[in-house]
Amino acid sequence: MNGKGLWLVLATAFALRLVLILILPPSTDVFYVNREAVSALLAGENPYTHVFTSVPSYLMTPNSQDVYAYLPSTLLFYLPFYFIDIRVGNAVADLLVALSIYLIRRELFGDRGILAPAIYLFFPPFILFTSYYSNNVAIPASFALLSIYMLLKRREGLAGLFLGISLSSLQLSFLLLPLLFYYCLKKGTLKPIYISLLTFSAIVIPFFAQNPDEFVRDVLLFQLQRPPLPFLSREALNLSLSGLLMPLGVRIPLSIRVVLTAIPLIFLSPLSTRPKGLVLSLAIFSSLSTFLLPNEVFGHYYLIPFSLYLAGLEKLK
Fold first, then answer.
1. Helix or strand or coil: residue 237?
2. Is there a domain that residue 8 lies in?
3. Which of 58, 97, 171, 206 would you call most buried, defined as having the most Cβ atoms within 10 angstroms of its Cβ?
4. C-alpha gyration radius of the chain
5. Which has the closest alpha carbon to 51: 228, 230, 39?
6. Does residue 52 lie in a domain region?
């Protein structure tokens, strides 16, 4: 497949998302919170101390009126799209994810086909995650995959920069760090890891420094302390171990969930020392840890693992 086929797929997917953005209203509080947070930032306010008033009452997460639970790079990514529709930013992030899937597969397998990126772009839930069930997970996913591609190309500076942006966009991006650290360690250079942590710090510290207590409460404690939804409820599916066990009255402490999450690293670390093994091991570990660690996991949380499987499974040629 030549490059024209890829660009046609990307353009078609983008146009489809734009049409849906025009005709479908957003159905999540994530959209309204992110839009108002960008507005607050442009007005010189701190989004992490802001009280959100634009979220419809039927969409508002309980006790979250004064919570901005997302890391700063999400907010900064949306800035150029504020005066259009921030969901256009989601659509752009989707294109970056698909392009990164293509580039990683070309690097690993010599695959110039468009099947894997097309699966990502036209998988119906992911289309709706951009427009109707609007969320921001494609933003950290795009930078995480770009980082992996640059790592495979031995562009260590860019790999670290993109990873740092991903880490400063979404807490779940940190689940990629152990295996990426091990891969870099075995390659004899931790430069990408150092740069990623410096990038993360440079982006996060200005927001953290304004009000450390509020920042930690919003981006960390709020997620850990709120009671989980059951696996199946009127609000959503909670696709986590905690949600699955909740109807049985079983609550697993965070410390136990951390241990359960760490166990797969014993088996996946040796696999991750080779480029092909790295991408596949990241896919396996991110999907397992996403299921095991958080109290609440909605469908879009699996966007990062799904995109990694598309990038790392050779049989999709």
1. strand
2. yes
3. 97
4. 19
5. 39
6. yes
Residues facing 232 on adjacent strands: 237
pLDDT (tens digit per residue) in 59-97: 887 778 899 999 999 999 999 999 999 999 999 999 999
- State the Cα torsion 178-182-187-189 to the nearest 10°: 60
Structure tokens at 51: 């009280």
Q: Could you report the per-residue pLDDT of 119-148, keeping only the tens digit for each?
A: 999 999 999 998 898 899 999 999 999 999
Q: Do 24 and 71 meet the contact criterion of CB atoms below 8 Å apart?
A: no
Quote the tokens at residue 128. Answer: 């709706």
Contact status, residue 293 vs residue 129, Cβ threshold 8 Å = no
Q: Which tokens is 9 given?
A: 């797929």
84 within a domain of the structure (yes/no): yes
Query: Can you state the percent helix, strand and coil of the chain, rounding each to 5?
Result: 70, 0, 30
Can you tell me the distance from the alpha carbon of 137 to that of 214, in angstroms, rounded to the nearest whole number?
A: 23
Q: Which domain holds residue 24?
A: 3-227
Residues, the chain: 317
Residue 53 counted as domain residue: yes
Instruction: At 237, give phi and psi (nearest 5°).
Output: -85, 130
Greatest C-alpha distance within the chain? 55
